[in-house]
Amino acid sequence: MGIRKLGYVGLNVTDVDAWTDLLGRTLGIGVTTAKFGTDEVALAELDEFKYRVALHPSTEDTPRELGWIVDTPRELDRLTQRLTDAGFTVEEGSAEERELRGATRLRWFTDPVGYRVELAIGEARARTGVARPDGTNPGATGLGHFVLASPKLDELRELYESVLEFKLTDYRAPGLFFFRCNSTHHSIALANAQTASIHHLEFEHGSIDDVGRAYDRARANGAPISISLGRHMNDKAISFYVRNPSGFHLEIGCGGIDVGDDWVPHDFGVPDVWGHHHTNANPFASPTS
């Protein structure tokens, strides 16, 4: 498969300070800054690479780009041809964009709901260890997955499954599907919804103790815990969710399973083994087609 993993997410945000406070003080995630054009962009350090989440100051809260890491230049060319054959226009990223991403090559296209999707070669290893606020080591270990909700579920499934060659791992009828691009249970999930949005973005942690300590800090700092601690039924991850300053969820989790080529996609039925109580109605409790 050409796409190796989820690399990074860029967000337009109206309150960078609130984001950096949540990431640093509550979630124990270090933040650096970089110049991009005339803006100063906040970069969330989840691991030893340059960044996994970029926060661009804006007058609106919207996804800016969704970045996937591709294995080789040959695979990048092959995927570009598949996208072109499927009717997508693929553009080259600018030198400034490559520099910010830490990529050697970068191409992008617009998905069926209007989001910019990037395919990047290379990741800049920026450090040997990640700076954490006191008491938060070892903390986050990487970027796990995101859930994209949209009224164009069929078109997005066609893009990710048929064009970009993601594999279906499992689903919950009639409108929630989980896809993988490596052995991790899923790197993206697609859901049916009336309007397009990122439902949540997941930060991987090394252990249940790391998740538990983040949960304690979230409670102590008054962070808006939107979904309580629990274990998912399908990937078995233990996690909780906070609502971030842009209005969607951040999932803080660990322990998701890996799957092999012999895995058989199936309907996993109920969403959770235990926990994960929602403060508001769960939009995927009874998804509609």
UniProtKB/TrEMBL annotation:
Cofactor(s) named in the record: Fe(2+)
Domain of life: Bacteria
Domain VOC: start-end pairs: 5-122, 142-255
Keywords: Aromatic hydrocarbons catabolism, Dioxygenase, Iron, Metal-binding, Oxidoreductase
Family according to the record: Belongs to the extradiol ring-cleavage dioxygenase family.
This protein's name: VOC family protein
